[in-house]
Amino acid sequence: MPVNRNALIRYKTIDTCLRNRYRQWTLEDLIDACSDALYEYEGIDKGISKRTVQMDIQMMRSEKLGYNAPIIVYDNKYYTYEDEDYSITNTPLSEQDLKVMSEAVEVLRQFRSFSYFSGMEDIVSRLEDHVTSAKQKTTPVIDFEKNESLQGLGYLDTIYNAIVNKQVLEMKYRSFKARSASNFLFYPYLLKEYRNRWFVFGIKKGTPMLLNLALDRIHSLQISENEPYRENTIFDPATFFDDVVGVTKTLNQKTETVRFWANAQNAPYIQTKPLHRSQQVIEEQADGSVIFELNVIINQELQREIFGFADNIKVLAPQSLVDFFRWKFRLAKELYNKEVE
Fold first, then answer.
1. Domains and CATH numbers, the chain
2. Other residues' Cβ atoms within 10 Å of the Cβ of residue 303
3. 3-state secondary structure 129-147
4. What is the DSSP string of 32-76?
5. Vertex 214, ends 212 and 217: CA angle to 5°?
6. Rounded distance, CA 254 to CA 251, Å?
7. Distance of alpha carbon 289 from alpha carbon 200, whole angstroms
8. Which residue, of 81, 189, 193, 230, has the fewest CB within 10 Å?
9. How far is CA 41 from CA 5, 36, 45, 121, 152, in A?
10. Cα–Cα dist 309/156, whole Å
11. Which H or E run contains 161?
């Protein structure tokens, strides 16, 4: 159950008061203490109502937040804890709390390659230790996809800071198709992750073309201190990938209407996990098969997605994509008919 910041301040204040056994606390005293705390921490000077504090006490007594605070009233006037050692800060974590905290730790761990998060490393480690101890070796309930052996992750932080601080990168890079690495200056604009690989988008000095460079193909990287930075005026990172599957796209590339048939066994899967956000059902056939349509850039990532369904999908349009798959499947057939030497 979500609790706002002001409520948490009031609960903590009431808890502090009731733990103080050297003073008797009336409802009016608790109201004054909560009002003072809200003014001190939040600058709220309008005070709080009697009903608000009464509801806070009721909430602390209940199981809704897991407190079950033993708050009692004696002499029909004074509030205290029946258990002298009780405090809401000593409340054990619930199983749901542990699950949520475990998931939060895993999410934070995904950003450990960025120095921006380095100040949190100790906090995350301590949180992880606390959660692990509290779970008492229970089985994990969430596992994030990751590739610890992927090369190039060490460059993430340098590239990230270069983009933020508008600095030029001096890079040695070798593409998959190149025979050797080349050196050039690069203006970085955007970092993007796709299927556990990281890419940086930007412009190579001396060219107008937007480049997409894989971090695991970088041989060396450093900031070029004296080179002036060229601002990004060629694409909008917020919308650039709206019409594409993956990361392969060039400037001014046009979308195409891709239509394909999926058999009855795979159509439900494709409906619940679309190949692209533009996907829509065109026709549902009597045998349970479905014809889908996309409006996308045709690139290698889209082709590979379709290849993954092998004989369960048939591309119907455009003709260029139909011809491409016919050619590819013919090559595949020839490969499987050929003996490996």
1. 5-90 (1.10.10), 95-135 (no CATH), 153-224 (2.30.30), 256-337 (3.30.70)
2. 18
3. HHHHHHHCCCCCCCCCCCC
4. HHHHHHHHHHH---S---HHHHHHHHHHHHSSSSS----EEEETT
5. 130
6. 9
7. 39
8. 193
9. 10, 9, 11, 27, 44
10. 33
11. helix 156-165
Which tokens belong to 54?
A: 């009464």
Q: How far apart are CA 130 and CA 261, in angstroms?
A: 51
**Per-position pLDDT tens, the chain of length 341:** 445 788 888 999 999 999 998 899 999 999 999 999 888 888 888 888 999 999 999 999 998 877 889 999 999 999 999 998 898 877 665 566 666 666 666 666 655 555 555 555 555 555 555 555 555 555 555 555 666 667 787 888 889 889 989 999 999 999 888 888 999 999 999 999 888 788 999 999 999 899 999 999 999 999 999 899 999 999 999 899 999 999 999 888 899 999 999 999 999 999 999 999 999 999 999 999 999 999 999 999 999 999 999 899 999 999 999 999 999 999 999 999 988 76
**Cα distance from N-terminal residue to C-terminal residue, the chain:** 64
What backbone phi and psi angles, to 5 degrees, belong to 87? -155, 145
Pairing of strands 218-224, 168-173: antiparallel
d(CA 133, CA 139): 13
Residue 236 has a CB neighbour count (10 Å cut-off) of 8
**Whole-angstrom distance, CA of residue 69 vs CA of residue 92:** 12
Which residues, in sequence order, are bridge partners of residue 175? Answer: none
Q: Which residue reads 């073309």 in tokens?
A: 209
Phi, psi of 104 (to 5 degrees): -65, -40
pTM of the model: 0.59
Length of the chain: 341
Q: How many CB atoms lie within 10 A of CB 339?
A: 4
Cβ pair 15, 87 in contact under 8 A: yes
Q: What is the largest CA-CA distance in the chain?
A: 95
Q: For residue 149, give Cα distances in angstroms to 58, 154, 283.
A: 52, 11, 44
